[in-house]
Amino acid sequence: MAISISALVLLTILVVVFVRSGGLKFSHALVCVLLGFLLAGSSMAPTIHQGLTATAGIVSSLQP
Predict the structure, then answer these.
(1) DSSP secondary structure string, 21-33?
(2) What is the rounded distance in angstroms from the CA atom of residue 11 to the CA atom of residue 42?
(3) How far apart (Å, rounded) are the C-alpha atoms in residues 63 and 56?
(4) How far apart are CA 22 and CA 14, in angstroms?
(5) Is the pTM here over 0.90, yes or no?
(6) Which of 14, 54, 57 is nearest to 33 (CA)?
(7) What letter would DSSP give residue 37?
(8) Deepest of 28, 40, 53, 64, by most Cβ within 10 A of its Cβ?
């Protein structure tokens, strides 16, 4: 558990640095994918899923 939390924190920091730098290379995209897999396996996954579902519902209800 401690290893996955530290890996999650490390990958989150790397993704923030990569996004702020502006250029997305293949290695940066790979780190983002690994972060996604770790987040999907964490206890935060249901909360993230509910938040994304609620946001998609709000966006789809907007009228142009």
Answers:
(1) H----HHHHHHHH
(2) 14
(3) 14
(4) 13
(5) no
(6) 14
(7) H
(8) 28
Q: Are 39 and 48 in contact (CB under 8 A)?
A: yes
Calculate the dihedral angle through the C-alpha atoms of 53, 59, 62, 64, rounding to the nearest 10 degrees: -150
C-alpha dist (Å) from residue 42 to 9, 20, 62: 12, 25, 32
Q: Which amino acid is at 49?
A: H
User: pLDDT (tens digit, 9 = 90+) per residue, 43-54?
Assistant: 878 888 898 889
Which amino acid appears at position 47 of this protein?
Answer: T
Structure tokens, 60: 């789809």
Provide the token pair at 24. Answer: 């997305």
pLDDT of residue 7: 76
